[in-house]
Amino acid sequence: MTKMKSLLAQMRLAQDAWMAHSGAVDEGRDSFLQQVASRSQRAVFRVRWTPLALAGAGAAAMLLVGALWWLLGDAQPSDATPDAARWYQATADAPLPLHFDSGDEVVLSPGSAARIAHNSDEHAVMMLERGRAELHVVHRANTQWQVNAGPFVIVVTGTRFETTWIPETAHFAVTMREGRVRINGPMLPESQEVRDNQVLTVSLREHRFSLVDPGLETAQAQRDASGDAAHAEALSPTDAAAADEQMPGEDAMHRGASSKIAPTLWVSQARKGRASAAMASVKAEGVASVLRRATPKELLLLADTARLTRDVALAERAYHRVRERAPHTGDAYTAAFSLGKMAFDVSAKYCESARWFETYLDEQKHSSLRREAMGRLMEARQRCGNKTSAQDAARRYLQAYPDGPHAPAAQKLLGAAPINNM
Amino acid sequence: MHSSMRISQPRTLTPIVLPGDRFGDDDAALLRALKAGDIHAASRFYERYANHIARVLTRILGPDRELADLINDTFCAAYASIHRLKDSDKMKAWITKIAVHVARSCIRKRQRRRALWFRYESDYSEPLHVPEPEDPDVNDALSAVQMVLAKMSLEHRIVFSLRFIEQLDLTAVAEACGVSLATVKRRIQRAEGEFAALARKHDCLAERMARTEKWESR
Questions:
Q1: Does any CB of chain B come closer than 8 Å to the CB of residue A10?
Q2: Chain A residue at shortest CA distance from B129
Q3: Helices A350-363/A330-345 angle, 10° precision
Q4: How far is the alpha carbon of B45 from chain A, nearest alpha carbon, in Å?
């Protein structure tokens, strides 16, 4: 093997090691599955509708709705044995029990809707379209029940539990009464087990997931949407309350999910260098809300991330907020330096840049960035058109850092005004 | 008063979704399930090809801070156009081609940004590091190779990375780039030349290049 081929082989190994360490595959999985779950097939497949096709589809949909209405009447069959294919909707004021020959029972809460997609000796599949269902499945060997609730799949072998799916808020919950179930779906570990009075709640919109054991009053497992256990976050009580508003009668246990507040999704994404994803999460959470709640360190992270994505306005807001929130601290000084650098590099506002570097140098007497700040101050003043003060900055720079990277520029700027004039 | 009903007759309706790897190595079943919008198929699809896609992207782009986003972009693009894939045997080649397209678009987008923003540009690349290498200069050499690859013309960089770093065979490279075998052979030959010319400008690579007469037989 030639030397170069050997080097490229080492590069391949080094890249593989970096990939494994980066965790990018795991992050990508969560993002991809969330997008698959949250987007309808029509949206994902990007069907190109022509106006004529759209009109035709609309007409066909109306005909289909009419036919279904005619076939189903009030959508509720009477005492006749229904087909497994039927769709069931509980009225707004009463639950709707469904009894199976096997002894299994499903009770749809008022306003809830479901479809029995399959029912055989080996397994049954129920699609919970919306609302809440209570299930009592009798355990039998070689028999499997499955409940599909939005993008979530609950596999049951014999148990009693309640499940909720609210498509408008992308809220999913399972409250166990007896036994255990396994759940697959976005944000969850594969085959997440829920058992013995545990309450699982997932908010796809908020990118939160919690598994709470009310008996222990402890959050058993919490993860954010990135799948990073270290950045756990429980579903807040307000989320549970919002779900209750959506679904009257929702079990009050959701409100018992007390938890510590951990770094939010955008913070974990930003720390991993996923700037675009972090900014999307910030915007989803609300910029004002993030600016209000973030710690100074998080604000600096937000500003740096915004800068990476060219959102100069947000970066400036975040840096200013750091200086308001934590004046006379290292974070505030760092913000001043960054504001100066951004004004110079991005906005080309050299006078403003010079003011920020002056602020930084006044506030921060000893730091690793001081040399850079002095050099930048000299450049900024020069480009601002203030030659005298630029020369003054050049003299100070040469005095402090005679061999610094800005030294040649400083000497050039001074020209006939050498260092010994100081 | 509750209405009540009995459900007794089995009726096959929608495809049954069961957890676990029910697809095995059966790409045809996986493709059918993907087209049906099965989220477990999407999960399995990702598990099957994510590492390969991550490698392809990293070979072309280097250790990139946005790798997770690019993997996600690749799979979303693949899922969005899954209905166009007819032959399940071509699944790997098809998603590889999408990954190459994503990497190419990413490089072009960054080149445009650099042109637009002049001095202010982000460094998306992270340094590669071989711990305790036998050759003490290897880390410098790896950095130099990254610089050389970054300077190569885009199409040359792609074929060079896929052929000599990922070590795909010529047919796979041709499929990934969407060109004929003859075209890819010519392109690889030119890429070798460009790489060699650029590498000789780096002291730590020049000696290695002197010992490299030919990359390999084609």
A1: yes
A2: A14
A3: 160
A4: 10
- Residue A358 and residue A350: Cα distance in Å, rounded? 12
Whether residue A310 contacts residue A330, with contact meaning beta carbons closer than 8 Å, is answered with no
**Distance (Å, whole) CA A212 – CA A219:** 5
Query: Is some CB atom of chain B closer than 8 A to the CB atom of A131?
Result: no
- Which of A7, A219, A154 minimizes the C-alpha distance to B128? A7
Q: Which of residues 162-201 of A touch B (CB under 8 A)?
A: 182, 184-186, 190-191
Measured CA to CA, the distance from residue B167 to residue A9 in angstroms comes to 9
Phi then psi for B106, rounded to 5 degrees? -60, -45
10 Å CB burial of residue A407 (0-12, 13-18, 19+) is middle
How much is the average pLDDT of A284-306? 83
Considering only CA atoms, which of A113, A103, A246, A251 is closest in space to residue A177?
A251
The token pair at A421 is: 């004039």
Measured distance CA(B180)–CA(B184) in Å, rounded: 6
Q: For chain B, first and last CA: distance in Å?
A: 80
Mean pLDDT of A278-286: 79
> Sorting pLDDT into bands at 50, 70 and 90, what band is B200?
confident
Q: Report the DSSP beta bridge partners of residue A127.
A: A115, A148
pLDDT of A80 strictly over 50: no
Q: A326-359 pLDDT, tens per residue? A: 878 888 888 899 898 888 887 788 888 899 999 8
- Where is pLDDT greater, at A415 or B49? B49
Contact A306, A314 (CB under 8 A): yes
d(CA A370, CA B170): 53
A324 CB contacts (<8 Å, ≥6 apart)?
none
Q: In chain A, what residues touch B3 (CB-CB under 8 Å)?
A: 76, 78, 94, 96
Taking CB atoms and an 8 Å cutoff, what residues of chain A touch B18?
Answer: 144, 146, 155
Give pLDDT tens digits for A115-134: 877 777 666 778 888 888 98
Note whether A8 and B161 are within 8 A (CB): no
Within 8 A of B77 by CB-CB distance, chain A residues are none
Answer yes or no: is the ipTM higher than 0.90.
Answer: no
* Contact (CB, 8 A) for A102 and A138: yes
Per-residue pLDDT band for A378 (boundaries 50, 70, 90) equals very high
Say how far apart CA A358 and CA B79 lie, in whole Å. 53
Give the number of other Cβ atoms within 10 Å of residue B77's Cβ.
Answer: 16
* Number of CB atoms found within 10 A of residue A67's CB: 10
Q: Which helix (H) or strand (E) holds B81?
A: none
Q: Cβ separation of A346 and B1 shorter than 8 Å?
A: no
pTM of this prediction exceeds 0.95:
no
Of residues A139 and A143, more confidently modeled: A139
**A27 close to B (CB below 8 A):** yes
Residues making up chain A, counted from first to last: 422
